[in-house]
Amino acid sequence: MPANENQKEKWYASWFDTPYYHILYKDRDYTEAQHFMDNLTQYLNLPDDAKILDLACGKGRHSIYLNSLGYNVTGADLSENSIAIASKFANEKLHFKVHDMRETCEEKYDAIFNLFTSFGYFESDDDNLTTLKAIHNSLNETGFACIDFMNVDYVIENLVPEEIKTVDGIDFHIKRYVKDNHIFKEIDFEADGEKHHYTEKVQALRLEDFEKMMEDAGIYLLDVFGNYKLQKFFKSQSERLIMIFK
């Protein structure tokens, strides 16, 4: 558990770095994720050897898949643990680095993907704006970026307040609630002879919030989709909020 106030603020730096995070989420639907990336790269009509930045790449599963399609991919994440694991899969056209998404990259990319709700974890709205500007400034002149976020209205409407998920013999007790314009997930479990408690929280950012931030950042929002098939976005029905900008 975070020991001091400073660490508490950066809960994502500790929880995402634990092995338990990867155990809890290991059954995510990667087939759907791969279809999404197929659809996205085709829609963007990226050149065969496009340079793609997978921002907040975790252990690099999506970077590895994008690389298998022939692209030159860099996976970047704040978690040193995750990058150490991902780096085992590196090759001439697949690189991984520890990187804070608030910082502009030295290299410029044809596409930057921020996938599966990897935005909105910072305490400050300024950090969100800084991140958007950093993404914008890390694109080349013809480059596109994609932020794949949850559709907050759909998520809140379908929130499961409490459940127990058992993975690898660990019972994860999960509570979800909305407070102070954030969606919280409290996770309690026992493992390796110890009790653990982690809190995930993500800002409840809606399309209009992103539109305002993008306007402030001088970003042009091109398209908005509501699912991984890149179908139209409906505020009350769509599972995802997928934004394409340049």
UniProtKB/TrEMBL annotation:
Signal peptide as annotated in the record: none
UniProt superkingdom: Bacteria
GO biological process annotation, one example: methylation
A matching Pfam family: Methyltransf_25
Keywords: Methyltransferase, Transferase
Source organism: Flavobacterium okayamense
Coiled coil: none
Keyword DNA repair carried by entry: no
Protein name: Methyltransferase
Gene3D superfamilies, alphabetized: S-adenosyl-L-methionine-dependent methyltransferases, Vaccinia Virus protein VP39
TM helices/strands, residue ranges: none
Domain Methyltransferase: start-end pairs: 52-143
GO function term, MF aspect, one: methyltransferase activity
